Amino acid sequence: MKKVPRFLCVIACLLFYQLSYGQSKPVVVEGNVLDAQKSPLVGVTIAIKGKNTGTQTDPKGHYRLQIADPANVTLVFTFIGFTTHEEPLNGRTAVSVILQEDRKKLEEVVVVGYGQQKKKDVTGAISSVNSKAIQDVPVTNPQQALQGRAPGVEVINNSSKPGDEPQVRIRGSRSLNAGNDPLYVVDGIPYSGSLNDIGTGVIQSMDILKDASATAIYGSRGANGVILVTTQRGKEGKPVVSYSGSYGIVRQLGETDMMSASRFIDMRREANRTIGKYDDNNPDASDQKIFNAVEYANIKKGVDVDWQDLMISQGYQTNHGVNVSGGGENTKYSVGLGYFKDQGVLKLQNYERYNFSIALDQRIGKRVKVGASLLGAYSRRNGETYNGIDNALKMLPIAAPYDDKGKLITYPTGDNQQPNPLLDYVDGNRIELNKRLRVFTSLYGEVEIIDGLKYRLNVGPDIQSYNYGLFQGKNNTNLLIGGGDATASKNNASVVAYTIENVLTYNKIVKKHNIGVTGLYSVQRETTDMSGTNVRGIPVESQQYFNLGQALNVTGLSSSLSSWTILSYMGRVNYGFDDRYLLTLTMRADGSSRFAPGKKWGYFPSVAVGWNIINEAPLKGQTFMDNLKLRASFGRIGNTGITPYATQGSLLRIPYSFGNKGVLGYVPQDLRNPDLTWETTTSTDIGLDFGFLNGRITGVIEWYNQRTTDLLMPQTLPYSNGFNQVLMNLGTSRNRGLEIGISASIIDNPNGFSWKMDVNYSRNRSSILSLGDGRTADIGNAWFVGQPTYVYYDFKKIGIWQDKDAALAARYNVKPGEIRLEDVNGDTVIDAKNDRQILGSPQPKWQAGTTQRFSYKGFELSIVAFARWGSMIKSDFYSNYNTLFGRYNNLNVVYNTSATPSNDFPRPNANQERPSNYQSLSYFDGSFFKIRNITLAYQMPNKVVSNWGMRDLRFTVGVKQPLILAPYRQTWKGIDPEDVNVIGIDAPATWMMQFGINAKF
């Protein structure tokens, strides 16, 4: 009996051993760790939750980890700049994850002038736009990507013409005559000329420097703000091939509401009825008098032609880019090619661009780095000055474009001032092509002399070439109106520029003290060589503008050479104590060749302080707020503002008679002023940065005051001096404003529905404080002390004189049906001196923008919108196409008659080419709200993409400019109120439906 228990004990021990051995046998778990772009992440820590064991990913983003029991283990993935991710194994042995960027941590480092800083150490006003935001909206150039994205940055599109660039203003306009464009810096090198040369696909980020602390480091060119453009560079890891492509269908946003045939016929009848030349008792005989034979015959035929429909067709926009990047520990590279084409809705307008980019970074040993980036572009722009829609809008709807044989009729109405606009579309009648080639390069070498002390050499060659040609055949509409033989123009220009910068930096942390010192010595030089020839009388039109020497007459010759140089010294000191108190001191000295001896040098200091309140003892330990910083800055920055040789005056060649012979002589054209110097802007800025709920809500509030003195502006002189003006440093202007920017993750569920948004608001008030010599107004330029730098100064329309007011109208020497103007001084005389007034300004009361992103599983919906409110616009449509004369077609307005006593538009009048004081009809409320873009994207699942041998695959469909809400559009039948100061006529506003694909291998 004793042997049985022993036997059972042995069996039990064996079973327990087998069970224990099975449970403790280690299992290898492996996988890959990638970022949102499916690129491998190197050095990610993978740990077992609750234990001290773990590993890291290799250069390929791969990891291997032995685990005893995968059924009850959770892996924790941590990496700087990314949110911590926990992944339960549940028995799996293959686990790959994608880490999401931690916005709060990523934004700890921002690009500043000549370096980078942790965001907590920044004392200046800086806004940033990353590559994802840039790609949210299909754009032609980088500036358009900033529209509605950053507080205090105003981007206004001039037109929808392919190749046009928008106007950019940072914190308003401050100069009256010297320009208000910001300075662009690409990869550390100042950049001049067209940003169209840079494809948006290569941009990593754009940082906008707004206050004196941030911009004073660029001295005489920083008064209008600075935009730092950083392009993409290679990353450590195996090669990544990426492709992005899109195709968009472009259509006219809305057709200008012109009169139909019946409306035009009624309008011409009314115009002649007004002057007593239309007899309603004998309408047919009257029609034969007021319509010519061609027009009368077409009326009888029932001709009703929509000329806009004939001129405008569907356009398209396509954009493609291929990039290869990668590298090892010492060498990183990125190479890209791009192609872009924008075919406008007018046949003769298009823009085409080829881009290439190269970025290379090489480490040599432990202390030396060298690198280069090259941006190249070749572009072709057709129809840069073409305005074919002008003739189409004026053409009468009762005019037939083709004869019975289908041939274009040269003068469809018999009027030699109204040629057929379709003639421009005939091959060879009009050819306009602008070809550009540009190679912009940034080279650097950096040596760490000792720990913390670095010397960097930046060299930036920049070569540009322009070739412009315009040919107009004798059947081109411009020549058919003016008459004459075929004309041609040829213009060429080359620009060679370079920048050389020597930068010395020293950074040291001593206990609680953080010290950074930057020193700069630089030189920048640019030389422009231009020539042009204009001729008339091309004997063989197929020669176009390629054989100007065969022309009958040379109507113009020109050439010029200009060069300028800026020599600069700069010093900056950054000091921080205990991550709480911050100080930045900057001084820059610029010497410019544009100014005369004794005036060449300008000095631009700034000081800024910051207080990281969040790091004070009372706030430590709390979890609700994670950022609270108060900033203030004060400094001076400049605006070069004049062209080379402006201080030396110029000569003008004129013909005159001497001894009964025609000879040529020279007279002074501009009065020289050797005392010209920089415009100087003194800026004060106060800002508050904040963040809550572990970065879920972040934002900034800024208040600023900028005062610009020594404004470069013309001083009016008596004509008896031989000159009517001279350029001087005279006036003073001011800009004050408020900016608010907020980013929030309202719902943040990586495995479900998420909602993130960015919102910004800004208001700017510009005003002229003085004009020099005690003047309070310069009426010729519409400059007024106490008013914005640009205003509309004109008579104010208060209605239309009605029949019941005939007696009062007679006192003003006008008749019922004419425009009624406000009599400011009440003397019953409307005159320019006493009754013109400031009607408004293009400056809005406020503007705002927002980006909303919604995501669920693999879907993402983004909506980008912005608004401008309280501005005024001037519309050329209501002055050029609202003549109510009867010779040309007219906007389809409700004009005044005895039967329809409109108070908006005057009575047609065949004796007036335009209504009296017609300009007063052109002013409208310019407020608007726009949805710039709606994009729906779908990210293919990782398993599917991996099976196809890819890293990432994303499809998008979007609509550009699908909605505009504006009084000008909904009330006054306008198309698009967005333009710079005046709504012009050159290309119709458009919208676009776009389809895209992004792939990585």
TrEMBL record:
Keyword Membrane: yes
Residues in the signal sequence: 1-22
Gene3D superfamilies, per database record: Carboxypeptidase-like, regulatory domain, TonB-dependent receptor, beta-barrel domain, TonB-dependent receptor, plug domain
Domain of life: Bacteria
Keyword Membrane: yes
InterPro entries membership: Beta-barrel_TonB_sf, CarboxyPept-like_regulatory, Plug_dom, Plug_dom_sf, TonB-dep_OMP_SusC/RagA, TonB-dep_OMP_SusC/RagA_CS, TonB-dep_rcpt-like
Gene Ontology cellular-component terms listed: cell outer membrane
SUPFAM superfamilies: Carboxypeptidase regulatory domain-like, Porins
Keywords, in A-Z order: Cell outer membrane, Membrane, Signal, Transmembrane, Transmembrane beta strand, Transport
Topology relative to the membrane: Multi-pass membrane protein
Protein location: Cell outer membrane
Ranges of residues in domain TonB-dependent receptor plug: 118-226
Record family assignment: Belongs to the TonB-dependent receptor family.
Protein name in UniProt: TonB-linked outer membrane protein, SusC/RagA family
